Amino acid sequence: MTFLYPSVLWSLLLLLIPVLIHLFSFRKVIRVVFPSVLLMEELKNETGNRTNLKHLLVLGSRMLFMFFIIMAFAQPIFKDQLRSAEGTLIYIDNSRSMSGEVAAGQIGLNKALQFSDDFINRAPADTKFQILTNQSSMALSWLSKQGALNKLSDVRFSSDPKSFSQILKKASALSQSMSFFYLSDFQKSTIGPLETPKEMDWQIKLIKIPVDNISNVYVDTAYLQVGQIHEVQKDISVKLKNSGKNDREGIQMKLISENQLISTLSVDINAESESMVTLSFDESYIKEGKMKIELVDYPVYFDNIFYMSLPSIKISKIIHIHPKKYFTRAVEKVFGNNTYFEYQRFNEDAIDYREMQLADFVILDGIENIPQSFDGYKDYNDFLIIPSKKIDKASYQSFLSRSINQVSDSISVGLNIKDLNDPFFSGIFNSKEVDIGLLKAKRNIEVNGRLNVLVENKYEKVFLGNIKSNNHYIYFFSSPLTSEFTNLTNHATFLPLMYKMSLGGVNRYIQPLYYDISKEYVSITTRDFDSSKKLRVLSGDVEWFPNYQYIEGRLLLKLPPFSLKAGNYEIINGDILIKRIALNESRVESEMEVYTNSELAEFGAKSENVDWINIEKIENLSSNEGFRDSPEDLFKFALILSLFFILSESLFIRYL
How far is the C-alpha of 106 from the C-alpha of 313, rounded, in Å? Predict the structure, then answer.
């Protein structure tokens, strides 16, 4: 047995006081004369013995009362109850879910800090502590009481939650023999499964902070709908989730660009459910592509803002390659719109191959013999083949990697779209029932093998199809686009079909509106990168120089592991802006379900290394108890015994 406060034992000197009182409280003797003293002598002996016994019992009761009072203040405990010789580790969950209220005007993190502060202040002066949080690096040494209190004052919210296994790994780097207190709201989505290593020999004490996060509505994801080609009016599909147990009505959604309100919507959403809503807006109001969705939702507010970056749909380069004496003028008219395209036309004998490599879409128009050198560009560009009247079959077969036959249809026959549900046709037609019966063509070539048929004739022969090559497409028509073979260039579908092919497929048209900040890398498609120039990422006053890889038009940026905040960012290569992106924090913290008291108690009961501590009993406990009401603590017995002996003194004085 030992004492938490041994200095209090000096008070045992006070036990001399009742002894001195006993020794010097003599009564003055009065002589009384009796005729016979024989009987009085016997009475004197009997009464004196009784009085001495009473005085000794009263003295003993007083001394024992004072002794046990002093023992209670010194707080005697068994040695196996002492804190570990190594020290005490306090791990505070400072994830953003701890921003919820535990009481009016007090949030969960402040409650955890208050408990920790009280506990450290009550500890003996020589106690060693360490404070860890989610963003703390692994600690390798202990702190004094004052050092621990100073570290508590620096605790702030972190957007990097840790699982229980990660927390134990971080804690084990400090010591394998210590007291470990974990203060958290025990959010299931971030803490994960509760398991303790079997080889652990230190005690874990779980303290649940009862944060009131019973309701939370947040944006789970958002994506740009494929509207009509190059429409100014855009629609964003937004998935909202309610992770709370209460239905919510009238949640206000605001679409904002550079502090300007662009669109607004009021949404009702049931408890523990999700809802898809659409925000419509005019693209011309979006400044520099920067957007964000703001929700008016309380009491959880850390996930009320969702950042987005509107992707540019302008095709950087369209390269049109044709024979010296011929080209399809309708193609030039389509892509000559410099609002959306940078169009260049080259004679097949005077191709600028550098421009071709930088192109997004290459049109081979009326080329009789496709050069073998073009094969190397299929990993960089999308292609459209408009065959000539006479072709070199071998060169076409080599480029398409498919069998080719030259055919000669006698008459033009009607054309039909094979499948309007094909993603290629998203945004081209307003209706799922489209009649293009006036569109006719007669074929000049036939492509066989594995391919995707977009437009076919009434005999189910392909007129427009595509072949996927790695991450790019090769589109082809089955005939030249002259009036001898088809009326397509005069038909209403020609413009949207050509536009859609130039967009490189639906997947590249719908660029990500945002990226997840918790991921290690961000993958960006760009052709404007110059590896000889410095790469920077900017957001207001924030700037960092990322590690990166650039491979075949794709830039992989490594995100920094710490201190990166959600927002809109600009990627600068030298002095050139190559891309704007939006970063959002992971939505995992937005799921509000927590481990219940019964679940934590069950976990503690299954593991001899884990104690679950009822928070309702914490505030009246002393530091040596480790925030728990232990039956082995001796100071209570000392208090009970002191009360027993003061009561005994009263009884002795009254009845003896």
Answer: 48
Residues in Cβ contact with 618 at an 8 Å cutoff, skipping those fewer than 6 apart: 115, 207, 627
Give the CATH fold of the 81-213+594-625 domain. Answer: Rossmann fold (3.40.50)
Query: Hey, do 81-213+594-625 and 515-584 end up sharing a CATH topology, with the first three levels equal?
Result: no
Tell me the pLDDT of the chain averaged across its residues: 84
Beta carbons within 8 Å of 149's beta carbon, 6+ residues apart:
117, 120, 121
Third-level CATH fold of 315-507:
Rossmann fold (3.40.50)
Which amino acid is residue 638, in one-letter code?
A: A
* pLDDT for 82 beyond 50: no
pTM of the model as a whole:
0.67
- Rounded CA-CA distance 248/213 in Å is 14
Rounded distance, CA 518 to CA 586, Å?
A: 6
DSSP codes, 483-527: TTTB-GGGSTTHHHHHHHHHTTSHHHHS--S-EETTSSEEEEE-S
Residue 128 clears pLDDT 60, i.e. is over it = yes
Three-state secondary structure string covering 449-465: CCCEEEEEECCCCEEEE
CB 128 within 8 A of CB 143: yes
Rounded Cα gap, residues 108 and 126, in angstroms:
29
**CATH classification of 515-584 is 2.60.40, yes or no?**
yes
Using DSSP's 3-state secondary structure scheme, residue 69 falls into: helix
What's the CA angle centered on 417, arms 414 and 420, to 5 degrees? 155
Closest residue by Cα to residue 72 from 466, 491, 535, 646: 646
Which one-letter amino acid corresponds to residue 4? L
Q: Which of 630, 553, 538, 626 is nearest to 583 (CA)?
A: 538
Determine contact, residues 112/183, Cβ cutoff 8 Å: yes
Tell me how crowded residue 400 is: count the other CB atoms within 10 A of its CB.
22
pLDDT digits (tens, 9 = 90+) for 218-277: 999 998 876 555 567 888 999 999 988 889 999 999 999 999 999 999 999 999 899 999
- Following DSSP, what letter does each residue of 515-577 receive, concatenated? EETTSSEEEEE-S---TTS-EEEEETTEEE---EEEETTEEEEEPPSSS--SEEEEEEETTEE
Domain extent listing, the chain: 2-78+635-655, 81-213+594-625, 315-507, 515-584
User: For the segment 336-357, what is each residue's pLDDT rounded down to a tens digit?
Assistant: 877 778 899 999 999 998 888 8
Backbone angles phi, psi at 232, to 5 degrees: -75, -35
Would you call 183 exposed, middle or buried from its count of C-beta atoms within 10 A (0-12, 13-18, 19+)?
A: buried
Report the C-alpha gap between 566 and 583 in whole angstroms. 5
- Over pLDDT 90: what percentage of the chain? 40
